[in-house]
Amino acid sequence: MLNSLTLFMILFLNFSSAMKNYTEIINIVDELLTKQNIPSEVTAYLCWSKVLKANLFKRLSASNILTKIIATDDIVDLFPSEYQIYLVDLDCEGSNEILKKAQRKKLFSRPFRWVFCGNIEQPLFNDLYFGVDSRIFFIDNAGSEYHIKMPYKREKNSKKFTVNDLAEWNSLQGFTRFDEFAAARNRTDLFGMNINISCVYTDSDTLNHLEDYRNIHIDPLTKLSWILVHHLMSILNASATVIFRNTWGYRDSNTSLFSGMIGDLQTGEAELGGTASFFTIDRIDVVEFYASSAPTYMKFIFRAPPLSYVTNVFTLPFHTYVWYCSFLLLVLIFFAIYVIVKWEWKDVVFREKLERMHDGSISPLRPTFFSVLLMEIGAITQQGTDSEPKSNAGRIATIFTFIALMFMYTSYSANIVALLQSTTESIRTLEDLLNYRISLGVQDIVYAHHYFEVRIQLSIDSYPNQTPGLKWLNTQDLGKLWR
Ligand SMILES: *[C@@H]1O[C@H](CO)[C@@H](O)[C@H](O)[C@H]1NC(C)=O
Ligand SMILES: *[C@@H]1O[C@H](CO)[C@@H](O)[C@H](O)[C@H]1NC(C)=O
Ligand SMILES: *[C@@H]1O[C@H](CO)[C@@H](O)[C@H](O)[C@H]1NC(C)=O
Ligand SMILES: *[C@@H]1O[C@H](CO)[C@@H](O)[C@H](O)[C@H]1NC(C)=O
Ligand SMILES: *[C@@H]1O[C@H](CO)[C@@H](O)[C@H](O)[C@H]1NC(C)=O
């Protein structure tokens, strides 16, 4: 491994200053591009003779590679960028300008590819930055053999290049060695380089439990990401300086600078966000999102309120028509008993009999409105009555009254007990929720503030005059809700 990583400075002095054999260089470029097996579009900056340019053109066209030869030092980023290959002869005049422009436009980074031949001016070369993700191929003529080398820098400000020696080529056999190359395998050893990582926590106790799997319901994202990032650092052989923030960060509308973790990434204070964050539109401009590392959801915990909260439970036990019928029944009973009692006191024989019995225990019912009403109320409230009709018809009516009202009373009581304990099922949609004006408790975490105050407000705006009460709850309060 270390053998392939030599310092480019040393290698560079070994560049031969012999005259280039252009035919061979054209062959190498062609074979190199063919070997990569990616659709390619070559933009060449060459000061070669017309014959050589035509040869290059012919050769690449034969391999189905689109070629453009440009005489000026104008450099443009073309599309699709992953197909673009810039071919530069460094011995040509003006090549330094091209390199400087490319550096300014950040064209040395992925997914652009560059092929260089010839010698480069040493001081300029040291100032160039080919990042770890760059794919820069130097065709280096070492005697009769050519080497293809891929220099890169681990850090932007460093002057040191590290080199992957990709291939060897000679004019007789073509490639005698062509190594596999993948940045993920060949450039991941950062030799203890420091990487600033910005992490977010919302609960200060989280810092004590980053690795011990405790309280995983508090700041789960922070704890999960922390472990992932640490694995990443050990894979990269890098060391991390961690910056802790208590918010992911939102844009200040005046300065367009973000706060928190995103702010660190924006200013370059940190290079890696150590805590997964939500994908929001305003962040896309500022940071680059990689694969999502943890599924995250925000959920409503909806406890249906008791039925008595939303409706009048006292009318619920009976259907509306049952209520109507019950009242009708009471009226009928009243009239039936009234008629019977009226007859009892009108009939001469029976009246004498009644008066004879009057010294007995239960007094006979008198044919007045209030006496009959009082008897009926006694039956409705299940209290009984102290006077009742004495005729057979009156007794039958009394028995039926008491039995009918007893059943009604029992079923009403049984129903209302069940109803008092049940919860409503009438809240099913967000609209219902808004209409019932139930106050809302929200876990007090920074992103909930964003989503409730900014995002949800937008949907609530379509229902004017409805502002549900928001209450911010900490984790303990939220736990109480569950119970
Ligand atoms: C360049 O190399 C080719 C073989 O690849 C050879 O035939 C030719 O003579 C060489 N030209 C020069 C100028 O050395
Ligand atoms: C990349 O790494 C693989 C496996 O470690 C190795 O075989 C290959 O030679 C390396 N390629 C280069 C260009 O160093
Ligand atoms: C990791 O980096 C250190 C320098 O900090 C270096 O000595 C060591 O060889 C590296 N480990 C590997 C496996 O390359
Ligand atoms: C932005 O500027 C306006 C006036 O220019 C000021 O009222 C407001 O407080 C500023 N907002 C922030 C977040 O600084
Ligand atoms: C990393 O953070 C330190 C201070 O914490 C700072 O001095 C340094 O410039 C940062 N590194 C980068 C690459 O921003």
UniProtKB/TrEMBL annotation:
Q: What is its main location?
A: membrane
Give compartment(s).
Answer: Cell membrane
Q: Keywords in UniProt for this one?
A: Cell membrane, Glycoprotein, Membrane, Receptor, Signal, Transmembrane, Transmembrane helix
The keyword Glycoprotein is annotated on this UniProt entry: yes
Note the topology in the membrane. Answer: Multi-pass membrane protein
* InterPro entries from the UniProt entry: Insect_Ionotropic_Sensory_Rcpt, Iontro_rcpt_C
Residues forming the Ionotropic glutamate receptor C-terminal domain are 321-435
Signal peptide region:
1-18
- Source domain of life: Eukaryota
Q: Which GO terms describe its molecular function?
A: ligand-gated monoatomic ion channel activity
Q: Which GO terms describe its biological process?
A: detection of stimulus involved in sensory perception
Of the GO CC terms on this record, one is: plasma membrane
Membrane-crossing segments per the record = 321-341, 362-381, 393-420
Which PANTHER family does the entry link to? GLUTAMATE RECEPTOR 2-LIKE PROTEIN, IONOTROPIC RECEPTOR 20A-RELATED
Q: Which family does it belong to?
A: Belongs to the glutamate-gated ion channel (TC 1.A.10.1) family.
Name of protein: Ionotropic receptor 75q
- Species assigned in the record: Colaphellus bowringi
The organism that produces this protein has a lineage beginning with: Eukaryota, Metazoa, Ecdysozoa, Arthropoda, Hexapoda
